[in-house]
């Protein structure tokens, strides 16, 4: 038996011991370190979402299983970064295969590392919004009829309506399709799948690569590897067990959704005979309801690792990687724009969710292969691929296949299909591209040669890595010189967003995006920023910066609206500004700003650097 298989066996034995202890004392998990020995070959997949056939083809392409689905990868480590479940009908078959491979791999010196995804957690805690009827149906043959009748009676007796029993039963069966109650039994803390999942970590580090489902929020830098796994794993275990205790006592109906748990518990009928254990269980569930295990600030839901621009995320990523002792992170959760494995932030982030469940995400399965310093991909259809593409620059919602370069090509040379003006006199043009309409605003050049502020802003964005200014190109239309600036679909502005209370689901938290805007508008001296032209792409609440017609003044200092703002010059900004040399400014912007404006831009850059040094 190899050293790795001994370690794997010890890991499983320790986890079984932890589980037994948990069952006795109802306390969270024991500490199991998730930094693992070196492996010559590591294969990672993510976000299967019940796509059993696609997963099998992907594992075969990567040499993990043979035709008989037995482990065939020798000493390889297989990492699955979560989300086996939800949306796809075959998630039970997926889990059973992973369990089988977990048992088989150590015999050859290999190991399977299943990490929790947000959908595993959702199934454990009763957030069942994305469970497909087919997933419930896989448990229907095992369901106990008495369970269904017991919980229907509970539902009907607590129903605040005049519905007949027949109507109530029909509604109940919609809420709890065939197999529902056996599914809930299987995902209980002592259930076949629940017990197994509660043993799994959130983050693992192998060969200097960190693996996690969603991303690396600041919480990871704060707690470190064992801290995240221990604290959040403990909270998940406690929530699940206390919820199950309330289920078993007949107090909390399994059909009550996770988000309604606190309200349902607070509305329990008063019973002086209720045990202290049950009272404490209800309080514990309420207290743990906002745990980071199931929130956007936790590593299972966080999208900033893919959604925040380099000026925001680089510093945060470095802090998290340092805390984990890793050089890069491999993540799932957010399907890649091109449905390929992608890398961003100089290869420190590898994105491997390529939309394996084709019916939901229109992608295919891909497996990442790590052998020493070499990274490559196995595609379920086309096989091995030595290249990992760079995460594309993307400002604003558009067709996923349309890159920034492609979009610039359409705007600069495409045939205009329609021109129109709005009530404010702004001019818009439309293009047709592969059956989709692309809209751009035509902004005429200001009077005076050599001053094209919107084009200057776009080029400066590219130089800094800001990723907030839409694609902008020079174009002459009907003898009038100007620029065309891409107008994304689905825009909102700050006035509308704040009034509606939207933006809480932003991939990159809005509270992090605004400080970048402050520094940017100081650098370009933009006095014209107002709530109406602070724009967002509503698909992910990415901040979009246009309206630079008043920018690039020859003044120094800050525009009036930013006089009292605190400017956060983080390490990312510091490096970007230092690379913004006078020579580069002249080379890239000389034809669109002119010497005096470039000189003033350089002086404002120096003022920002000086302010950061104080």
Strand element count: 21
Number of structurally distinct domains: 2
Radius of gyration: 27 Å
CATH topology of the largest domain: the name is Purple Acid Phosphatase, chain A, domain 2
What distance separates the N and C termini? 59 Å
Bin the strand percentage.
15-25%
What's the SSE blueprint?
Layout: H1 3-25, E1 35-36, E2 42-45, H2 52-61, E3 77-80, H3 91-104, E4 111-114, H4 118-125, H5 133-137, H6 145-157, H7 165-175, H8 180-186, H9 192-197, E5 203-206, E6 209-212, H10 218-248, H11 261-266, H12 276-287, H13 304-307, H14 310-324, E7 328-331, E8 342-344, E9 349-351, H15 358-361, E10 366-371, E11 374-379, E12 383-385, E13 389-390, H16 404-413, E14 416-421, E15 427-433, E16 436-444, H17 453-464, E17 472-477, E18 480-486, E19 491-493, H18 494-500, H19 510-523, E20 534-537, E21 542-545, H20 571-578, H21 582-589, H22 595-613
Parallel strand pairs: 1-5, 2-3, 3-4, 6-7, 7-9, 8-13
Antiparallel strand pairs: 2-10, 5-6, 8-9, 10-11, 11-12, 14-15, 15-16, 16-18, 17-18, 19-20, 20-21
Helix pairs in contact: 10-12, 10-14, 14-20, 21-22
Which terms summarize this structure?
seven-stranded mixed sheet; globular; 22 helices; 614 residues; six-stranded mixed sheet; alpha/beta; single chain; 21 strands; Purple Acid Phosphatase, chain A, domain 2
Please tell me about this protein's structure.
It is built from 22 helices and 21 strands. With 614 residues, it is α/β, with parallel strands linked by helices. The chain folds into two domains: 3-143 and 178-390, Purple Acid Phosphatase, chain A, domain 2 (4-Layer Sandwich); 393-614. The strands form four sheets. A seven-stranded mixed β-sheet has the order 1-5-6-7-9-8-13. The protein starts with a helix and ends with a helix.
